[in-house]
Amino acid sequence: MYNCTSHQAFIEQKQIVKLQYFKNNILLVISLPIFINEVPYVLELIKDITNSMIFHDSIHHENYELRNLINRLNIISEKDPFTDLFNKKYIDKQIKEDIRNAKEKKESYILALIDIDNFKNVNDTYGHIYGDIVIKDIVSIIHKHIDGRDCWAARYGGDEFLLAYRNETYENVQSCCKCITNDINSNSYS
Fold first, then answer.
1. Which of 16, 94, 137, 146 is the right S-S partner for 5, CB 3.0 to 4.6 Å?
2. pLDDT tens-digit profile of 7-56?
């Protein structure tokens, strides 16, 4: 299981704490940057707090409510609130995990980047509200072409989107990206 809190604690040089649901257990994870002989490390403490929580299902005495809350919060923390695509935090975590899985399974892993040409001109000419409409329209086009595939999409920057294809041929990815480009180009945004 890849756990990005250690990496985040190391980079930011601050303590990172999270709750994680894993194999029917609720874990408290604390990642703490430390120095030993002036060499930086991260100490990661993990405690199973499954039976220590206040929230319980009144019939089964299980932590369903808390488990669902943790899952929802983890999903929210990895999503771009405007587009509902994954965010950079998710990209950093998931690409590493996907590459590791692809190597282990000897499967392909292909990344594609979509950058909207001259998007600044759209915002400057028509305003940010219109720019927001364009972004949401492009996101719906991306969803139309990746739904049903082993693929995820993320907002990489303001007008940049990353698509990650698992176990797809180069030709299929190229065809999908051409369809996305053609759909975007067929809409008139100016």
1. 16
2. 888 888 899 888 887 887 788 888 999 999 989 999 998 988 877 655 54
SS3 at position 160: strand
Alpha-carbon distance values, 9 to 12, 20, 41, 43, 168 (Å): 5, 16, 10, 9, 34
d(CA 137, CA 158): 14
In the block, which residue shows the tokens 């692809």? 102
pTM of the model: 0.66
| Residue 127, CA distances (Å) to 120, 131, 156, 189 in order | 10, 6, 21, 12
- Answer whether 155's CB lies under 8 Å from 83's CB: yes
d(CA 72, CA 126): 36
Tokens of 165: 């294809």
* Tokens at 78, concatenated: 């990895």
Interval 150-181: pLDDT, tens: 999 999 988 999 999 999 999 999 999 999 99
